[in-house]
Amino acid sequence: MRTLSRLFFLCLLAVPRPLAAAAPEPSGSLGGVVRTSDGLPLPGVAVFVQGAANERRVTTGPDGSFRAALAPGSYTLRVDAPGLTLGEPQAVSVGAGETRQDLVLSPAPVKERVVVSATRGEATLSSLGVSVDVLDRERIDDRGAASLLPLLQDVPGIATARTGQTGQQGSVFVRGGESRFARVLIDGVAVNQPGGAYDFGSALPFELERIEVVRGAASSLYGGDALAGVVSLETRRARAGERPSLRAEGEGGSFDWQRYFGATSGARGDLDWNAGVQRLTTDNEAPNSRFEDTAAALSAGARLDPRTDLRLVARYETSTVGTPGPTAYGRPDLDASFDRDDVLLSALLRRNGPTLSQQLGVGYALTDQLSRNPDDSGCFVPEWEGVTGSYPNCDFPNPEGFQNQTDRLVGSYQADLAAGSRHLLTAGGELDHETGELGSRSSELLRPSRTNYGVYLQDRVLLGSRAYLTIGGRVEKNGSYGTHAVPRAALAVRVRDGADATTLRASAGMGVKEPSFFESYGESFFAKGNPDLDPERSTTFDVGVEQRAFASRLRASATYFHHDYHDQIAYTVVDLDTFEGSYVNLAHTRAQGLELALEARPLPELSLLGQYTYTDGEILDSPSDFDPVYAAGRALLRRPENQASISAQLTQPRWSAGLTLVYVGERADSDFVGLGLASDPSYRNPSYTRLDARLRVRIVAALEAFVVADNLFDAEYQEALGYPALGRSVRGGLRLRVGGRP
């Protein structure tokens, strides 16, 4: 692996750079800015300038600008960005001085996506070899999901599992990786707990502008945790020129569902803002599973001068949920609960220029979790479908609770440089300080701290006229495991241009992940930390093809992926006499498979989305001598071999309606209560199919009514064995918007 790292960095250094050469002062030049129709600049896009003698290619800089030295004459311009159209090539006359011609690209029926998380800067999806999906504001609003997990379930390569109902512990698995193998960002700030864990159970689609999911190791840009990919959330912000507005929603439904929401947004002069608050309560279906959540979010921006912007983001969420346990097997725990508080603060100062853009950021993320179990609920013998457990399961009360509080302070600097007409360089560094207070409140808390440093370099290169190479790497110095280097490279090749473009993609990279605080520093007798742990690692690659058809009314893609996760940290008993345990780097798993995705707009008012994922995951090496669930040769836990979803959305001037069908196939799982279901390698958690529906009707210009039905046919299933999922849930309400865009 070290040889592979060196090879990647040698390739980075070997990428050709433009050579300076003495040349006479040009007699004319052509310049401008390439933007989307909603004003978003497009860096790294190829602009083709066709003259009488030949054609020149230039790449837009960090702020979307381009410039070419030209002899006076007539030229035509076109832009290479499938899914965004310039219409007919634009004609321009260049004189002896400087000529300016800005280019505005309109979206095709299936529009091009502009992503940020794949390269840490704006880039069109067609110019990347990386697998990325974007859920924009319209798609989030159309889906009408009660929580974040159903939205992520619609993304290829993503599996989700929740131990119960709304608000209870939720996991996201990217391409067969563990739930702690994806870096989770909110407005650019990592919110994972140290060691990678992130609980999606209480995460709501509250005031989100977009969700980006990068699949494949991304530690070359983000350092730790990004072994399998990145999930990036961005807080909603006012759009350019948006008039001040007020928004309010009231919603009620099944299981005593109540949600109240209010927000204001707008842009005036050099300022823009978006602020919202929300209160949600529901009793759910299982005993002692009531969920209460209060959230607030603010995103405010200021233009300090024509090239300098400042953005501030603040998010706060507090929730509590009952945790009755695996109620499918026996009596619920009627007093256990889980409290959680999350705080996120970020500030980003960015200065844009035609050749050089710089940004300075600082972020703070805090999560404070408390598991309570004040009373002894007694013992029960689990039973399930005629099978009786081999031993009773007893409650272990902890009146003072188990605390898991961690916080992260991050400082970062990044520069983007246009080097010649074909290179866009990105370089930056980060400092990340982690602290925590963890353990049972009845005893002394563990108070660890760790400081990490990272520097990264990336080059996006236009090769010829149809190939885009992205290559880079990062050197990470971690407070636990020391210094490691991780590379990544990706290639996108256009083999056919135009509205029906064909693009071939490939990417490869490596990832590292730090141990959790307990794994490194824990002092429990039964689970002592190991300060000498190595990082968990991954080696990933994928290859695929994307095809646009019918004048960009359809986009289809197919991607094969192979992810290798090694040096995984696992608990093992080190003393068979005392059963003292610790953590070791012995586990090794592999996941490979196929992702298919389809997006179509056969009519302006009808959109179709579909995805299918096949995942072949296997445990290759394991230190587990006692639990057959984790034995070598077994399938990966809670990651289905087959998963698919298809959505249809019909939008009319006064109403819109949508359907989403989700299928999750059989998957390996365990009861973890002694029923022995997992001791049989052939046992699988059964498959399920769920249909979600929604309808919106505009009553008057500023008021609409909506209704959402989740699990419309009341399917009975368990995302995690022992934890019944929510049955049919119907929610309805009113949405008011005053002001804003017409």
Topology:
Blueprint: H1 2-14, E1 28-36, E2 46-50, E3 55-59, E4 65-70, E5 73-80, E6 84-85, E7 90-94, E8 98-100, E9 103-107, E10 114-115, E11 123-124, E12 131-136, H2 137-143, H3 148-153, E13 158-162, E14 170-174, E15 182-186, E16 189-190, E17 208-215, H4 219-222, E18 229-235, E19 245-253, E20 257-268, E21 271-282, E22 291-305, E23 308-322, E24 337-351, E25 356-373, E26 379-380, E27 383-384, E28 387-388, E29 393-394, E30 398-419, E31 423-440, E32 449-463, E33 467-478, E34 482-496, E35 502-513, H5 517-521, E36 523-524, E37 527-528, E38 536-549, E39 554-575, E40 580-603, E41 606-621, E42 642-651, E43 655-664, E44 688-700, E45 703-710, E46 718-720, E47 723-724, E48 729-739
Parallel strand pairs: 1-8, 1-9, 15-18
Antiparallel strand pairs: 1-4, 2-3, 2-5, 5-7, 6-9, 10-11, 12-17, 13-14, 15-16, 17-18, 19-20, 19-48, 20-21, 21-22, 22-23, 23-24, 24-25, 25-30, 26-29, 27-28, 30-31, 31-32, 32-33, 33-34, 34-35, 35-38, 36-37, 38-39, 39-40, 40-41, 41-42, 42-43, 43-44, 44-45, 45-48, 46-47
Task: Characterize the largest beta sheet: strand count, sense, and whether it forms a barrel.
Answer: 22 strands, antiparallel, barrel
CATH class of the domain at 2-107: Mainly Beta
The radius of gyration over CA amounts to 26 Å
Helical region count?
5
Strand fraction: over 45%
Low-confidence stretches: 1-25
Mean pLDDT: 90
Shape: globular
Based on DSSP secondary structure assignment, what is the total number of beta strands? 48
Percent in helix: under 10%
Structural class: mainly beta
CATH architecture of the domain at 2-107: Sandwich
Q: CATH superfamily name of the domain at 2-107?
A: Carboxypeptidase-like, regulatory domain
Alpha-carbon distance between the termini?
A: 56 Å
